[in-house]
Amino acid sequence: PWRCSGERADVALHFPTDAERPDLRGALIGDAIWPEFLYHDAVVNQHFTPAIRASPELQFYVWDDERGEVVGQGNAVPTKWDGDVESLPVGGLRAVIAQEVDEPNVLCALQIMVAVGRRGEGLSRRMIERMHELGREHGFDRLIAPVRPNLKHRYPLAPMERYIEWRREDGSLLDPWLRTHEALGAQILKVAPQSMVVAEPVAEWEQWTEMAFPESGTYVVPEALAPVEIERERDEGLYEEPNVWMVHR
Question: What's the pLDDT score for residue 5?
């Protein structure tokens, strides 16, 4: 158990694994954790659930004893990496979950989700630490992650390669989520330019974004980290989301 002294002081939290509490699966489904379009990557939809179900001992929940509810979820999978930055896949998350690995040697974080009403309490930092704990318990000495910067959507036209270099006056990274990882010892390695890919009909994009796309072109849409390419003749909106490879040793 862990006691949080954030916005809601003195809250007793527990971090059971999926192997210990399979009854908690899907507890955060009702929360709008991600923008709608991110639920429509065909590769992720096919492989994500099987990947995490294969290692329930590495998935965990944040359980609030006082309220009797799940307020967070962390997912990671074992994978193989030779330590060479160039060998990290440009496909980021979707590449990791789609590959079959013999003799994994690193743990790869897939996502950390915190219930909307519980953000700002320091839970995400503790959840990264919990991933460290689980990795060590299962013999891994490194944690890698294709990180989704949580303020990049405010700067969709800036290349991710430049965004990850932006720092505040105190020298810390501008992006809060990248900054949290760095504060825990993580190092930025490179950009994963196609960590998620969504290619769907224009009408779907118009519904998700509540925008009209009257002609082919490049559009900035809410919550997207990069612009969406609309092609009317092909009836397709294409979004390639860049994430950032980081490593915790």
Answer: 37
